[in-house]
Specification:
Radius of gyration: 25 Å
Helix content: 55-70%
Order of helices and strands: EHEHEHEHEHHEHEHHEHHHHHHHH
CATH class of the largest domain: Alpha Beta
Distance between the termini: 61 Å
Largest sheet: 6 strands, parallel
Structural class: alpha/beta
CATH superfamily of the largest domain: P-loop containing nucleotide triphosphate hydrolases
């Protein structure tokens, strides 16, 4: 049986299968899916849990020896098998043997990265698809992230305004764990049934007195050059990696170059934003940036941002933070 993430809750109202595989590259959804299955298993008297973190050096026969033994107190148990990557032949055979035992007192819960086509055709994976449950989790598409956030808020009986969801989605940039953490903080400030507004999210950011690299880039694109030294100083204090920041600036310059080229070719901004799935909150940053520079301007700024990497690795003289502020000032239109 194959399920998606949204089908888990309704499935767990039924008697559990003997084996579950949760695969994908979205850590938060994998964690939530395994938590839901473990909770349902406890309710069905699977009271003991053995956890195996499996890497390339793992002794596979030990899994059969330990996993196959009865619980000390006779309880039903969960074998929580966490794969760093999918196993080679020996591991595949051990998993198949473990699954084929189909012990009613043992629930096998396997989690791992995205399951590609080659591994889907392995016997142990086919066994789970036929006899157990395979749950594939996928990253939330950036264009759908605001509505994912709204749905998430509804689960907690809160109403998240669309413009607030767009701003939050822009800040977390697809990181669902960060999105969950931000929502959890907002839920503490709003009672059930109330709306989470755009102004509340902006106020929370001000109250936290912390900044993200994305906020730095947004203020830069808007032309708010007076805010840049303070934000950059705070990011430095928070030990943001220089290489991460340099590459984010490079990425932003390249994107703005593409947008500027399409604009120069006569494409309407509304169509450009739709094609690149840029939300209104981000459009408010890009509109002034695209008025400020054309294609060549953003090309030159990309070269300046690229040069920051040479300073970081010591290939060029200079101080990264001073040079980074210079690039930010130029991007913002201040010189």
């Amino acid at each position: 049986m194959r399920l998606n993430f949204d089908q888990i809750v309704s499935h767990l109202k039924l008697p559990l299968k003997s084996a579950y595989l949760i695969s994908g590259d979205e850590p938060m959804q994998i964690l939530e899916a395994t938590d839901l299955i473990r909770q349902a298993a406890r309710e069905q008297q699977f009271l003991e849990r053995e956890t195996y973190h499996i890497d390339s050096k793992f002794n596979w026969p030990s899994l059969l020896e330990q996993g196959g033994t009865m619980s000390l107190f006779g309880d039903k148990k969960i074998l929580d098998i966490r794969l760093e990557k999918y196993p080679a032949k020996e591991g595949q055979e051990c998993l198949l043997q473990l699954l084929s035992a189909n012990d009613p007192n043992t629930l096998v819960l396997i989690s791992g990265p995205k399951l590609d086509k080659a591994h889907q055709n392995k016997k142990w994976a086919k066994w789970i698809s036929a006899q157990g449950v395979w749950i594939a989790v996928w990253p939330v598409d950036l264009a759908k992230l605001p509505h994912w956030l709204i749905s998430r808020a509804k689960q907690k009986q809160r109403n998240l305004a669309l413009e607030a969801a767009e701003l939050l989605a822009n800040r977390v940039q697809g990181n669902l764990l960060a999105a969950k953490q931000e929502l959890d903080k907002l839920f503490l400030q709003v009672v059930e049934g109330e709306q989470i507004s755009l102004s509340l999210i902006e106020q929370q950011s001000a109250d936290n007195a912390r900044f993200t690299p994305w906020e730095l880039i947004d203020e830069c694109c808007k032309g708010n050059y007076q805010k840049l030294p303070q934000i950059l100083k705070r990011l430095r204090q928070e030990k943001v990696e220089p290489m991460q920041l340099a590459r984010m600036l490079q990425k932003e310059c390249l994107l703005l170059e593409k947008l500027a080229q399409l604009k120069a070719d006569g494409t309407m901004l509304a169509s450009i934003y739709k094609e690149f799935r840029i939300w209104p909150a981000k459009q408010a940053c890009y509109n002034p940036a695209l008025k400020r520079y054309g294609v060549k301007g953003w090309q030159r700024l990309w070269v300046r941002a690229l040069a920051l990497e040479k300073v970081i690795i010591g290939a060029e003289p200079g101080d990264f933070w001073d040079d980074c502020l210079d690039v930010l000032f130029l991007m913002s239109g201040f010189s």
